[in-house]
Amino acid sequence: MIPEHDPQRLQLNDAGKLRHFLTIEDLPCEILTEILDTAESFVSMGEQSVKKVPLLRGKTVMNLFFENSTRTRATFELAAKRLSADVLNLDIKTSSTAKGETLMDTLQNLEAMHADAFVVRHSESGAAHFIASQITPDVAIINAGDGRHAHPTQAMLDMFTIRRHKGAFEGLKVAIVGDILHSRVARSQIQALNTLGAAAVRVVAPKTLLPRDIEALGVEVYTRMEEGLKDVDVVIMLRLQRERMHGALLPSEGEYYRLYGLTQEKLTYARPDVIVMHPGPINRGVEIESAVADGPRSVILQQVSYGIATRMAVLSMATGGQAQQRELSQSMQQENNQ
Amino acid sequence: MIPEHDPQRLQLNDAGKLRHFLTIEDLPCEILTEILDTAESFVSMGEQSVKKVPLLRGKTVMNLFFENSTRTRATFELAAKRLSADVLNLDIKTSSTAKGETLMDTLQNLEAMHADAFVVRHSESGAAHFIASQITPDVAIINAGDGRHAHPTQAMLDMFTIRRHKGAFEGLKVAIVGDILHSRVARSQIQALNTLGAAAVRVVAPKTLLPRDIEALGVEVYTRMEEGLKDVDVVIMLRLQRERMHGALLPSEGEYYRLYGLTQEKLTYARPDVIVMHPGPINRGVEIESAVADGPRSVILQQVSYGIATRMAVLSMATGGQAQQRELSQSMQQENNQ
Amino acid sequence: MIPEHDPQRLQLNDAGKLRHFLTIEDLPCEILTEILDTAESFVSMGEQSVKKVPLLRGKTVMNLFFENSTRTRATFELAAKRLSADVLNLDIKTSSTAKGETLMDTLQNLEAMHADAFVVRHSESGAAHFIASQITPDVAIINAGDGRHAHPTQAMLDMFTIRRHKGAFEGLKVAIVGDILHSRVARSQIQALNTLGAAAVRVVAPKTLLPRDIEALGVEVYTRMEEGLKDVDVVIMLRLQRERMHGALLPSEGEYYRLYGLTQEKLTYARPDVIVMHPGPINRGVEIESAVADGPRSVILQQVSYGIATRMAVLSMATGGQAQQRELSQSMQQENNQ
């Protein structure tokens, strides 16, 4: 039941098309660009009076949220419904696992109901990857955030936002500011920016909120905002994940805001046409000043809109890639039989 | 982002059509009649084998229930689905607001997902009005009950029920009986009956369950059932909101039932063709006798059926009014640019 | 409102077609076969790229789960959505019943919203039957498990699985193994196998897990696996319902597994082409060995797939039977009026 495969190729089918979306890592620039181009075809739909396409009609998308996230679940649910899929929301914690069933049995049961895609949110790093490689490889697995590891659809909607406002990635300087250490979003953004060819990816944070091996990811490291923001085209603020902060990594919220909070004053270090992004939900007065969040350089609410289109793109591409893989496997089997 | 407007006109667009439905107050008779007429076109649908129309196909309706109400949520969910809308149920209490996000940010995020309508239930009076005027004026806001203030779709389904059974409002005498003090339903009913031209609106309650300024609403006040029910065409019983009763406003449930419970005997004071209504859920033996609730004069279950049709009418009219407003604003802008 | 009827005929309309699905008991072989044949037409759909038919378009199916069951709810929700019905999930416990409303009022309110089918799961035996006979006879009631009484859609998907793999019931020997005493599934399976003409239905269990009057159901009773499994064509393992075991009915889980757990070794008593079934969720190492559950004779995951098709069959047949009954009643009334 578990196919052998090159781990690098887990996300792509035999024709090189997306079949799972687990991490930005290892994905070629062409696939990321295809996601952005596909999202482009959906983004205008949001403004139309009929926002629906029949691409996934008759397909079943299951939202498996092992970790609670109303907002991310809502965007995936809307994306799937606007593709005309049937959507099932399952809170796995309260499900049969409580009856002593293993996670493998639960997921294989859901697969047997002819699920086409699982949208997986999990507090453990690697959960989505494990499901795709070991449990249900024939269901398109979409990683909606796993532990500190990755949040690839968030990163792609951020890339979409940047491309929409800046045209291309070539020559762009992007600063990611804040709690890099605990941020799965930051890891995915760095990988995407490097793959798509940004000129420079900077991280700006106090040393206590930086992973040890951060330079290995291909970034420039800054600990002072004045230098980190200098002449950048894009500032991505991260949420100060107060609920994830264990121990005394920070002096105080006030001190953090004074040093790393994005204020109108600090924003003047960046280019005049800089755009300000944030994955949300924002902490006003903690990592960002309201005047910046609501100001003319902010594209934070556009990110939300683009998030639906980007998730529509990933859902339709990955279910399509799985369908193509089934055909490829069948024709290969027929050739072998002849 | 927040348009300036005459508060009286908040619910109507520049062409005088409904764009929000927050309160019966201030709405002209023509709009209320348009709601009833539109509901009429939907009410027969419930009896057809296919109960669905494509009016809101591709539109997104979000149920934002800050206060729990399975029944009201179910009727709005069904109404939206029978209009072919995509529906998202959001329990806002457990959502990102727990992560420190402001209500404004949460709602503007949902708007950015291209929501067409928010159905809002909230324990604070004025919540729906605040959202429509200050937060997301371009989303159609439907008030599904706010504090003690208003429950306008309930009032309109009651008006629909009365018109269906009595033909017109002219000459009608209507008695509203029970806990007027705590009832948002009663306030909305009184306003609707007066706007639609009922001959007399009576309230019947012990003094402890009457607001001080009740006469200002344009009602006749009675404290004895024998007098209050005399010759009325319609009796609307209110639920004894035991969960909202703080302090000793009532001697006892038994005493309340003896004085104000609607029994077959007390019903004889009314006209022989009286209809008995109740917004539900009913407390049998507390404010109404089972023989009356289940008897030939009761239209309580019809009210539920009409509730779907009335909510379909409000949803389709308000989303239509918002779409029209967008067109009006665009053409005004184009004229200004020429 | 409550029609009088022969209790034997409660599940069938005046033309002999299914209108409720409450129990296998009393249903003729033709109806069971019609369910299997209808499911057959749906089962291939799961493998198609578009898994949807418009049979219940515009119909409303309400899932009323008084007892929690994520898995069963999911299969009914998917079945209804693949039939194009609108689906409403209602957690009745947290609903208006908390406000003092009676169950009768809650259900009649839901009926008044023009529900076409209620899928009812309840911890009390007879709940679905009571609703169909006493509360809302015109809504198609589908029993999704009531107390220890019945779980007829589970039994029918099991019958479907057997017929798919064995062709017919004639001549088949079937063993049901485990906690017969607490199992509503077992009762329904025994009735279905006898009605459909299986050659022998065996139950295999320790005496403490057998009902006293078990022989009256038309089964052969075995307390030793070697004898009970000898030459059978089908083994149905039951879940050891640990959460329902009150008191000391069993020595220990280890002892139970040694005596009644289905291992590869014990399976050799059965016919070589035996199929192994289990209603799920399975307890690995408690009532079944992993090597058997995942082995070549296991059809456990196919059961899940067939479960969707079987529930689609029951939902479409019962709502069709109710629609037909309405027509029959109307034409009968017209004849009486002439």
From TrEMBL, chains A, B, C:
GO MF terms held by the record = amino acid binding; aspartate carbamoyltransferase activity
SUPFAM superfamilies associated with the record:
Aspartate/ornithine carbamoyltransferase (SSF53671)
Quick check: keyword Transferase in the entry? yes
Detail which positions bind L-aspartate.
Answer: K99, R184, R239
Q: Which domain of life is it from?
A: Bacteria
Q: Which GO terms describe its cellular component?
A: cytosol
Domain Aspartate/ornithine carbamoyltransferase carbamoyl-P binding: from-to ranges: 19-163
Metabolic or biological pathway: Pyrimidine metabolism; UMP biosynthesis via de novo pathway; (S)-dihydroorotate from bicarbonate: step 2/3
Q: Where does carbamoyl phosphate bind?
A: R71, T72, R121, H151, Q154, G280, P281
- Assigned keywords, A-Z: Pyrimidine biosynthesis, Transferase
GO BP field? 'de novo' pyrimidine nucleobase biosynthetic process; 'de novo' UMP biosynthetic process; amino acid metabolic process
The segment(s) forming the Aspartate/ornithine carbamoyltransferase Asp/Orn-binding domain are 170-317
| Known catalytic reactions | carbamoyl phosphate + L-aspartate = N-carbamoyl-L-aspartate + phosphate + H(+)
As recorded in UniProt, its EC number(s) are 2.1.3.2
What does the similarity note say?
Answer: Belongs to the aspartate/ornithine carbamoyltransferase superfamily. ATCase family.
What subunit structure does UniProt give? Heterododecamer (2C3:3R2) of six catalytic PyrB chains organized as two trimers (C3), and six regulatory PyrI chains organized as three dimers (R2).
Q: What does this protein do?
A: Catalyzes the condensation of carbamoyl phosphate and aspartate to form carbamoyl aspartate and inorganic phosphate, the committed step in the de novo pyrimidine nucleotide biosynthesis pathway.
- Under what name is this protein listed? Aspartate carbamoyltransferase
What is the protein's species of origin? Terasakiispira papahanaumokuakeensis
